[in-house]
Amino acid sequence: MSAILKTQKLRVEFRSREMRQAVKVALAGLDLEVRAGEVFGFLGPNGAGKTTTMNVLLGFVPPTSGSASLFGIDVRQPIARQRIGYLPELTYYYKFLTAEELLRFYAKIFGLPRSEADKRIDQLLKLVELEHARKRPIKSYSKGMQQRVGLAQALINNPDLLILDEPTSGLDPLGRMKVREIIQRLKDEGKTVFFSSHELGEVETVCDRVAIIHQGELKAVGSVHDITGRHASLEKSFLEIIGFQTQPTP
Amino acid sequence: MKNIFAVAGIVIKELYRRKDFYVLFIVTILICLVMASVNIFNDAKIVRYLKEICLLLIWICSLVVAVTTTARQIPAERENRTLLPLLAKPLTRPQLLFGKFLGCWLACGLALLCFYVFFGALSAAREHQWPLLDYFQAATLHWFMLGIVVAMVLLGSLVFAAPSSNNTICFVVIGGILFVGRHLDQVALTMHEPLRTVVDSIYFAIPHLELFDVRDLVIHNWPLIPWLYFSLALLYALGYMAVFLAGACLVFRRKAVN
Amino acid sequence: MNSPRTIFLLLVALLVSCFGLAAHLQPQFEAWRGSRAAGDIFNVVLGDSRRIFANSFYVKADEYYHSGYYPTIFDDKAAFQTAHMAADTGAVNDKNHGDEHGFLGPPRDWIDAFGRHFFPDRHTHLDEGGADDDLSGSENVREILPWLKLSADLDPDNVQTYTVTAFWLRIRMHKVAEAEAVLHEGLRNCPDSYDILFELGRLYDESYHDTGRARNVWKLALDKWLKLDSDSQKDNRLIFEQITTHLAKLEEDAGNLSEALNWYQAAQKVSAAPAALQARIDDVQKKLRAFIPVTPQKLY
User: Fold this and answer.
1) How far apart are CA A11 and CA A217, in angstroms?
2) A33 in Cβ contact with A161 (< 8 Å)
């Protein structure tokens, strides 16, 4: 299977103004590959470099050195984003728009014809169960509804690759279950999903492969089964990989 | 272009769904109607003071709409994190900026249209005439002036830390240009070097917004501005819009989005 | 110290102190009411700065008289020291000199040259056609009236505002009743003003043709003028000349030639153009000699 998402020796450095131009290395030579049709979990503790990696892939942050590509196109080209969908961790969207107007706006940016956009909007609102609220302004939505709108906008262009940054963050168990169902459905349709999460139980359930990143370095990559290895759960394995010493149980 | 128009459409929707414009419009109407009801020596034909008050209010309101609407565009996108899903689409940063500019400028144009229609109705009620070409020239020059203001404020929103500071600085600069911009060269003559050179440079560098303020011509029924000079003024405005937008693109290119 | 009871008691004590202080100061405040006693909203809100606003609105009226073609503080104002709308009434000392048509001077640079197409660039007067050179529209001078009214409201002590307003109302707008009302309001605020009385006399004479009232009012104006000290009289000779010449004309038209002669002679003493008045005096003297009554002869 070909790599849809690829990074080669990706390095990102930030210069800190407070520390008199001291350099902070966010990513130190990351080599990563995500194949077509797989659900890929991107794990790491806070500050590991997960969001930085996503920002590079989405063109928000230029790499200091190395390369990143989507579908073989350098991420700095806007056309690289034509076939992806992105759900950021925290979003509030345009409060004065309705869900339908928001989706129509994003559909226009993707250049979808009106009739196709209408059909797609109907499908997505049904999928994320927001049909009853399509004409209400987003400012009246609950957190869960806003997250679902976010998922809908990430899918508006029927993307081949979905990049989700902690998609179940802030959701109740029912909401998390629905997101897992959507991810599974997308996988069945042959889409590729690349997502980061702190919910290791979820990752174990849906992911084909995972990568663990810590302090900007890739620590482990492989199938869930391979990563879990001799440990009872992915969580224990994760903690060992990042170097956290667990207290022995009395 | 479709991306630019899509972003512009959102800005226009925002204008007519917020209350700012309606409040300003209603306040303008109320003040003008109160002024119109004043009995001045039993003469119902006195109209120029009314035109002046109405046009002054229109100018103040339009500047408030232009500056406040534009100043919050990019900072609000950043604060609400709507910038991330937007730039994750096949939309470049220059397209986003042009879309915001076009949206704010068109929104100002729509607001101006409402104001000038009211102005025309108010003056026609007393003067019983419709100098449409004069109003067209005045409104068009006003709109293009707002285009310069929008481009300038958009650049300011990328340079200054907060919308409030951008608002304040832009209002001060715009007010300064409108009141004394035309006379800076005379002020420079009264100064010694090197201050004279500095003030002279400022005089030639600033966009002369006062050129677009033709209220006196409209109020006192002066003949039309020659169309050649009218067109040159519009080109002058387009030039400054391009300069400010180019500056904004350069600044935005290097700015972090999160 | 921080207990709610202590805080409450402190607040009550503070409240009582405030009321006590206010009650103690009330008599002094009443004695000091000053301009607040006038009850005028402009007085209360603006205080003495209302005169600055009044002056700027008076200048605004002159700007309207010129259809917007008016010097700013950066331009040469030598030709606009006396408002043209006042100077054209013929009732004020005209201190203007210099070029009223070209106070801007030649364009200083290309921006200035280009910019002159976007604001008024020609000297005109509203009662002489205005910006569109419409000589039939001399009543357009009505447009200066709102600013004059506002100026008078803000500074009721400025005599010139009333006289100028009344002049234009009467002469161009043919609104004699309104002009009279303005002058009466001026007299209420400035009871010793000979300028206003003179203008009122002109109204009675020229518009109502009521020579009796005109005479009385002009004589009252003269009395007011005569009560001035000598320095003030020296500075206000023009109005004395105007009153006396108008009285002279009135008496001459009424056939009271000796009275007319006295008034002309009084005017000649202060006139800047005594020769012109001498011609009038000679004319009246000629008429007087021709009018000497002949003693009727007994026919039987």
Assistant:
1) 10
2) no
pTM: 0.86
B-interface mutation test, from C108, C110, C118, most B Cβ less than 10 A away: C118
Residues with Cβ within 8 Å of C113's Cβ and at least 6 positions away in sequence, in order, are C107
B146: Cβ contacts below 8 Å, ≥ 6 apart:
B62, B63, B66, B105, B108, B109, B112
C299: pLDDT confidence band, cut at 50, 70 and 90?
very low
Mean pLDDT calculated for residue range A136-163:
90
C143 has a chain B CB within 8 A of its CB: yes
Alpha carbons C184 and C239: distance in angstroms, whole number: 19
Taking only the tens place, the pLDDT of each residue in A16-25 is: 666 566 788 8
Distance between CA atoms of residues A28 and A49, nearest Å: 9
pLDDT of B226 higher than 90: yes
Please give the structure tokens belonging to residue C237: 């000779």
pLDDT digits (tens, 9 = 90+) for C29-87: 776 655 555 556 777 777 888 899 999 999 999 999 999 999 888 888 888 888 888 88
Q: What is the predicted ipTM? A: 0.91
Please report where in the chains the tokens 């917007």 appear, as a residue.
C68
What tokens appear for C201 in the block? 């006399």
DSSP code for C207? I
C175/B41 touch (CB, cutoff 8 Å), yes or no = yes
Contact B40 C149 (CB under 8 A): yes
**Would you call A13 helix, strand, or coil by DSSP?**
strand
- Asked if the Cβ–Cβ distance from B84 to A88 is below 8 Å, we say yes
B225 → closest Cβ in C118, C132, C139 = C118
